[in-house]
């Protein structure tokens, strides 16, 4: 499933490439097209709410001296933004419930073909139970009120639907072993969470592996924080709609790293983690053992 945000960003990126190839600045393009520079910038950024009209795309391609094949592809992508105007579920949430910086991630996650996540402290949001997620959102106290926390939990659980839809993305998770030993919400909450992990890994599109303490020094220490890697589908001519993206949460926002040197650095970290993590069968045994220890069996 390809979301409209991904298509908008792809159109904008292609238009920017064509403009630069024509040796035009955004200001010069705006003057020729009788538009404001801010409008050109929003189109090239694929900003939420921007509309790509055929007449505008044709005018830009003519100004930039684009090949017919480029125009045809851009018009096809433009048509897809119109066909995909159905409101996405996350648009129903406020800025407080779903900050704009994270709303972009949710829209890209929804369009990804593969999602890879390394977690240091917690079960990733896409695999959390409600009880576990509720405990996670208790911290830091005083940051938001109880009603707000509940709405944020609802958003987190809503994201999980993408894993069970038709043509669902493949999710590959590597958990630091510490995640299995961190008691979140007590034994009952953890037991339910471990059972859920064992259940979802029966699906063909979800893989969970553990990076054991015995792995010693590893690439994740260089990254120092959890991160996600998103890979995206291709367009009608076989080019990726969006470059690979590394996403890193911060206390007050997020980092979107899609420059080749940025995303490749996280790719190298992932490859090291992938080499050191135990296989899926051994990981399931480790999770099952953690579950048994909670119940005292």
């Amino acid at each position: 499933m390809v979301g409209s945000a991904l298509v908008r960003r792809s159109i904008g990126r292609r238009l920017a490439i064509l403009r630069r190839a024509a040796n035009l600045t955004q200001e010069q393009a705006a003057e020729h097209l009788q538009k404001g520079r801010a409008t050109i910038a929003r189109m090239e950024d694929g900003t939420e709410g921007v509309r790509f009209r055929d007449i505008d795309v044709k005018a830009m391609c003519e100004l930039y001296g684009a090949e017919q094949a480029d125009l045809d592809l851009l018009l096809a992508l433009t048509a897809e933004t119109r066909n995909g105007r159905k409101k996405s579920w996350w648009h129903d949430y406020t800025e407080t419930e779903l900050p704009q910086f994270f709303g972009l991630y949710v829209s890209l996650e929804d369009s990804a073909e593969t999602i890879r996540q390394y977690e240091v402290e917690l079960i990733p949001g896409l695999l959390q139970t409600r009880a576990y997620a509720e405990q996670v959102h208790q911290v830091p106290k005083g940051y938001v009120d109880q009603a707000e926390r509940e709405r944020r939990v609802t958003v987190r659980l809503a994201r999980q639907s993408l894993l069970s839809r038709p043509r669902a993305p493949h999710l590959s998770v590597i958990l630091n072993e510490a995640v299995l030993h961190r008691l979140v919400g007590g034994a009952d909450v953890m037991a339910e969470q471990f059972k859920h992990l064992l259940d979802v890994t029966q699906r063909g599109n979800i893989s969970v592996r553990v990076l054991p303490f015995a792995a010693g020094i590893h690439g994740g220490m260089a990254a120092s924080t959890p991160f996600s890697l998103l890979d995206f589908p291709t367009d009608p001519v076989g080019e990726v709609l969006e470059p690979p993206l590394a996403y890193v949460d911060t206390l007050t926002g997020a980092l979107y790293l899609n420059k080749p040197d940025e995303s490749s650095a996280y790719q190298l970290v992932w490859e090291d983690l992938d080499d050191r993590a135990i296989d899926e069968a051994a990981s399931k045994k480790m999770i099952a053992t953690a579950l048994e220890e909670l119940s005292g069996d």
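The two ends are 43 Å apart (CA to CA). Residues 4-21 form the longest helix (18 residues).
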